[in-house]
Amino acid sequence: MSFEQNKIDIAVIGATGVVGETIIELLAKSKIPINELYLLSSAKSIGRTVSFSNRQIYVEDLAEFDFSKVALALFAAGSEVAKKYCKKAIEKGCYVIDNSSAYRDDPKIPLIVPEVNSHKLEQIKVPSLIANPNCSTIQMCVALEPIYRLYGITRVTVSTYQSVSGTGRKAISELVSQTTSLLNGKIEAPKVYDKPIAFNAIPHIDDFLDNEYTKEEMKMFNETQKIFSDQEILVNATAVRVPTIFGHSESINVETKSPVDLEQLKKEYSKAKGVKLFKNTNYPTAMTDAVGKLDVFIGRIRKDITHQNAINLWVVADNVRKGGAWNTIQIAELLVSKIL
Ligand SMILES: NC(=O)c1ccc[n+]([C@@H]2O[C@H](COP(=O)([O-])OP(=O)(O)OC[C@H]3O[C@@H](n4cnc5c(N)ncnc54)[C@H](OP(=O)(O)O)[C@@H]3O)[C@@H](O)[C@H]2O)c1
Questions:
Q1: Distances from the Cα of 186 to the Cαs of 26, 178, 183, 189, 190, in angstroms?
Q2: CA–CA distance from 79 to each of 75, 85, 115, 126, 302 (Å)?
Q3: Region for 31 from its dihedrals, namely left if φ exceeds 0, alpha if ψ lies in -120 to 50, beta otherwise
Q4: How far does residue 299's CA lie from ligand 1's centre (Å)?
Q5: What does the pLDDT look like over 128-173, one tens digit per residue?
Q6: Dihedral, CA atoms, 126, 57, 82, 226, nearest 10 degrees?
Q7: Phi and psi at residue 284, in whole multiples of 5°?
Q8: Enclosing H/E stretch for 153
Q9: Per residue in 258-299, pLDDT tens?
Q10: DSSP string, 100-127
């Protein structure tokens, strides 16, 4: 059964991954009334257990799963898995939220950051797919929303400082192992990234494209336009991997249509949901403020001294939570309140 006494049956796909396990943790604390929870991964994880609300649930093989058992499927297992299984799940009557980039550019699929465009969920009437944006795009769009609404945005220049958890569990192991080796005087060959990540910074996230930007950088361009439904916002991104485990940081310069009133903007951030503002010389860092939290943290707001209609800001968030699992749960809560 998909629905049972106003409770819902849910599957988490990628339950043993960094995002999947956080979805499970946040589901336990969410407003969603759950009847059965199915945890799915690849065949190699069959028999593993994951804890949910003080009980242990066995992980099952995705390839053997019958999606007609659930009404909602939360995918966090990468693009290949999404392309193979999301549509099958929808055909079985399931609403799907996918964390991969497989369907984000499809104009028919809503791409949702609830603080910006939750109204797009109103169009959803039957089981269908919703895409969760890229982690760096999500936190940037939350920070851009009040600026866009009050002053309009023409151009954004952003440099990211992205933690290795953004690449999944294997990248966390690589950073820890390379760091340990280097501290013991040994050099370990990189496997996950092209260059060593320990004690380094790598300006290369996802594949290079013909225009010499990386896919990650172009995701920030294309997804921002889609989320704001505005093809005129230009996003000039440089995405950099840094040797931290959790939390992404971004240095953002925003050019606006009209001049920004900084005091008005700070007031707007102070009352915005999902945002914590650090004022004046105080500033947030990923490790001390964002990791383990659901909000987006903003500081270093200041006028760009080289441009009349531009400001600078520093934005940090937990990439696994607001950049993935929490954004998914926020969408799921809104969706479930419509369908139950
Ligand atoms: N990490 C982030 O900050 C972040 C943020 C937003 C979005 N995302 C996106 O979320 C997705 C998951 O990322 P992650 O960081 O959680 O990756 P991860 O730690 O590498 O976990 C991947 C998960 O997918 C499962 N999986 C892989 N191949 C599978 C298959 N053929 N069939 C069934 N399950 C399979 C794995 O199961 P096994 O353990 O059995 O292999 C594991 O549970 C990716 O699309 C990623 O781009 C990640």
A1: 39, 9, 7, 10, 13
A2: 10, 10, 25, 23, 38
A3: alpha
A4: 31
A5: 999 999 999 999 999 999 999 999 999 999 999 999 999 999 999 9
A6: 60
A7: -85, 150
A8: strand 153-161
A9: 999 999 999 999 999 999 999 889 999 999 999 999 999 999
A10: SSTTTT-TTS-B--HHHHGGGGGG--SS
Q: Which residue type does 101 have?
A: S
Can you list the domains of the chain with their CATH numbers? 3-134+324-339 (3.40.50.720), 136-319 (3.30.360.10)
Place of tokens 């996230």: 205
Answer yes or no: is the C-beta of 22 below 6 A from any ligand 1 atom. no
Q: Report residue 328 as tokens.
A: 């998914």
Matching residue, tokens 């280097």: 182
Q: Helix H segments across the chain?
A: 18-29, 79-91, 114-117, 135-151, 169-183, 215-227, 262-271, 326-339
Nearest CA to ligand 1 atom 33: 42
Ligand 1 lined by 146 (C-beta under 6 Å): no
Which residues carry out catalysis?
135, 248
Q: Whose CA is nearest to atom 2 of ligand 1?
A: 166
| 77 pocket-lining for ligand 1 (C-beta < 6 Å) | yes
Q: Does the Cβ of 18 fall within 6 Å of ligand 1?
A: yes
What's the gap in Å between 161 CA and the centre of ligand 1?
Answer: 21
Mutate to test the pocket of ligand 1, among 97, 99, 101, 136 (most ligand atoms within 8 A of CB): 99
Q: Which two tokens stand for residue 252?
A: 């953002």
Could you give phi then psi for residue 79, rounded to 5 degrees? Answer: -70, -40
Q: How far apart are CA 202 and CA 33, in angstroms?
A: 42
